[in-house]
Structures
1.
Amino acid sequence: MDKPNTPGPAASSRLSTPLEGTPATAWDANAPITAPLCLHQTTVRPEWVDYNGHMSESCYLLVFGDSSDAFFRFIGIDESYRDQGGHSFYTVETHIHNIREISLGQPLRLSLQLLDVDAKRMHIFHAMHHATTGELLATCEQMLVHVQMAQGRSAPMPADLQQRLAAIHAAHAPLGRPPQAGASIGIRRKP
């Protein structure tokens, strides 16, 4: 076990995703694209439950991140994309809406909608549902930027990736904008 304040976690104790090491799916341009995409399911683990008896707020983001990782692999991005090309997606903004409490052992189904895309950015929207009842539990809206890692700055996506994302965006356009998307945070006061 690492000692507190020890720089750099040991490889066996660092944070990873359930899909780490799993190769990306081969893209089939003729395959139908579901709207929204449902690429990740999980169950609330004991280590995600806090002293209030429900999933801790940081673990919502962890699960949404795992859903993003499933999406990356769906569009052709895995470790080889990063290692061979030196590119990745970095999250630059996240907004989470916690709608219902989630308890230990509850099954979760995640969906993802691509709200917008350009040559360097993706605007995605996750929804977390109870996998049995279908009840909406939480949402997460994110802006991601494609980066050239060595330079530490944004870079255009390769043309084939842009084409894949354009196809997904077109398939998701009829869904419309979720009500939580673009919401601002603040204390609402009566005039």
Note: Strands lie at 37-43, 87-98, 107-117, 121-130, 136-148, 153-154.
2.
Amino acid sequence: MIGLGTIINVIAIIAGSTIGMIVKKGIPESMQRSVMKTLGIAVMFIGISGVLQEMLVITEDGISTQGTMLMIISLVLGTVIGELCRIEARLESAGDKLKKLKLFSGSNPHFTEGFVTATLVVSIGAMSIIGSFNDGLGIGPDILITKSILDFISTMIFASALGAGVICSIIPMGIYQGALTVLARFAQPLVEGTTIISDLSLVGSVLIFAVGINLFAEKSIKVGNMLPSLLIPIIYGIIKTFIG
């Protein structure tokens, strides 16, 4: 069943967030802050491993790198577009609106932060991109199922520290992964034989690293405004395919 991976992912986030909110009452605030910083370090290393996996190439002559210029150009152009569109502010505004719903009345002041942070963590990255494409191409939902386990653990920790906003990350994540899954059905001829997915994974891993910095340093980089960076490798890959 195409789309099964995203459905399982949504269920895992709901379960993890719910458990986190239940457990939260028994966790001291000082411990919550320590856990968040620890999780930030873990997320940074996940991002670093993803970057190295896509950038480093082992050849007979040793180790070389690839995709460096595309990564830099993607991040710069994407950030400029994101700043002009004020994506981070729009994400925060969406979180504020969700917080006003009766369902979340009485939520803690970290609701919006939890929504934005969890959305960025569960929506960007290699597993989200490659897993959605594999699901859409009929290869299987295995990667998204693995991602669901990781998201279950991470959202449980996030929710224990940031509250109910974390569970709302299922909305943008579901739309994003669902769209990628559907897109894969139509984009297969364009993607096959190109480096689009690899380039997307590289840029996505850099954004994951930036999210880790935010978790550790308590918000300093507007990662939401960097999201358009993910569009640049796609555009580049399509142009490269048609030009030859």
Note: The first strand starts at residue 56 and ends at 59.
3.
Amino acid sequence: MNNVYNESILVCVYYGPNGERLIKRGCAIANMMKSPLYILTIDPKPFDELDAEKLFYIEQWKEYAHSHATAQFIMKDNESRPVSKVIAEVARDNNITQIILGQTAHSRWEQITKGSIINSLVREIPFVDLHIVSVARYIRDEEGIYEKGVRAYLVKDGEHYKLSFNHEKHTEYEGIFFKEVDTDFDNGIFRFMKDAATLHVLVSDGMVTELKNVDISTAMGLDDSVE
């Protein structure tokens, strides 16, 4: 791919349901400009101390990078420096001209809505274009918010699938289960990868009756009242 416009795109992602949206935005810009794409995530913990949910997202991002001809995934773990310093360093090392960030209230990203990262990046790398994409922090629907996701599996059970929290012999899919709040049953959303695509399927009382993707993007919203 010839870099016609001499541009390089950096997408900064954090754990949650919005990384895919940011990466798709980056891919669209990179394809339009025929430019290289870099996907960056930063974590203060060492890689071997990350929990199952974080590792799941990292695996997804790597898959997205592999699916794009000129994309590269960059993981900066065990980082004690401010996020803006790390982003600026990666931008300089890779001659980045455009950065895509998600607008979120998450403290790990130093609350982009307050402008701290943006102001720091403008000072650090003033000649890089910043794209701020509005995203959601939680998976939610009309009935409420789901709990933090946990590693789970779908096991074939006749014509349906049983939700399991242990890897079994007949496990079909591995992913993350988001349980509905205020329920004693395993009701919620199961997120997993199937044929290089991310799917969300409904779980009712620990069972998935069909692998039908649920479109939850229209029901997502930024909720700054929950910290």
Note: The two ends are 43 Å apart (CA to CA).
